[in-house]
Each structure stands twice: as C-alpha cells, then as structure tokens.
Amino acid sequence: MALRPGRVQQIHKRENRGVDRSSEPFRIEKLTRRPGLVTLLRPAFEPGYTDHMREIYPQWGIGVSTCIDSGKPVKHPRLRFDHYVDLVKVWEDHDFIYVEDMYVDVLLYERAYYHVIDLEEFGEALAQREVSTAEAKRVLENTQHFVDAMKRSRLSYVVWKQKYGIQHRLQ
Q1: Is the dihedral of CA 16, 19, 20, 21 positive or negative?
Q2: Does CATH number 2.40.50.40 belong to domain 8-163?
Q3: Residue in 37, 25, 90 with CA at minimum distance from that of residue 61
Q4: Three-state secondary structure string covering 1-19
Q5: How far apart are CA 44 and CA 52, in angstroms?
Q6: What is the pLDDT of residues 38-53, one digit of tens each?
Q7: For the chain, which residues make up each domain, given as ranges?
C-alpha cells in the first residue's frame, strides 16, 4: 500500500523504534499489543511533560494521545486538552504497524467538552481526491460513533475506555 506523505506513522513491531509522520525516527519506550488495542509510550514532543502515550483502537479508527508527566496523565502544557484523538486508518505488514492520520481530530477536555477540529483539511483532501469517498464515509462514521459514545460516557475518556475501549464497536 502506498503511503501518503506526511500522514503515516510507522511503528516497528519487534524493535523499540518508529518513524513519525514527518519521516523522523523516534524511540519507543514501551509497546503493548492486545486484540483491539495498540499502546505505545515514547518521549514527549515538547517541554512540559515527560512522555507521550498513544492508544490506537483499529476497530474504532481512532488514536488517542495523552501527555504523561512522571507516570501520570497531565493536560497538554500549551493547549490544555486532556486527550487528543486522531481519526486514523490502521494496517500492518510483517515488520510495521502503520497508522495513517485521516485529517479529522477531536480534542477532549475530561468531563467538560470535546472539540472537533481540522474538518477543513479533511474537506480539502476530499476535494483534491487525496481521500476516496469510501474512506471519507468511514472517517465521518467513525467520528460520529466516537463522539456519540463519548457523550454516553459523560464526556470522560476514562469512562469511555472502560465501557467501549477494546470492545468492538456496534454498528
């Protein structure tokens, strides 16, 4: 499968390394794979926290990023969100897990509200035929299913994770 430049993160399955969307290599401190969930811990991207945790739920088509400081979740130091959710497409081969960012993102502010962002990027990619109509349909359905489940979880990722996390999403 051809990789869309600047959109795909590559996670090596057996080595503690990956390649970011920007083609920059990074170190993985911990990688855990379970049915329905891939979790990775890596060094922070910017000052204000020590680690970046990403939980990828292929069946939901989402990757949830959380800032970690000394082992505990913290708000992002600049933007103050609790969790950043990327709508993604996930596939793998013998060596790598590929996580493609599908443009739409959701900022979660625990127990308060959520904010859907980057819809203009998604629309532009669709207009330029960088995203197929089938992919666009899937991304929009995944976004709707996720925000509906978040609302049912009292706008808490912690509650969502317990209730829906690795359980297969019902259509």
Answers
A1: negative
A2: no
A3: 90
A4: CCCCCCCEEEEECCCCEEE
A5: 5
A6: 999 999 989 999 999 9
A7: 8-163
pLDDT tens track for 80-136: 999 999 999 999 999 999 999 999 999 999 999 999 999 999 999 999 999 999 999
Which tops the pLDDT comparison, 4 or 114?
114
Contact (Cβ atoms closer than 8 angstroms) between residue 28 and residue 40: yes
Single pTM value for the model? 0.92
DSSP string, 102-125: EEEEEEEETTTEEEEE-HHHHHHH
Pull the structure tokens for residue 90. Answer: 């996930």
Residue with tokens 């390649």: 19
What's the pLDDT band for 1 if we cut at 50, 70, 90? low
User: Would you give the end-to-end CA distance of the chain in angstroms?
Assistant: 27
Cα–Cα distance, 137 to 146 (Å, whole number):
14
Residues 6+ apart with CB under 8 A from 121: 103
Reduce the DSSP state of residue 48 to 3 states and report it: coil
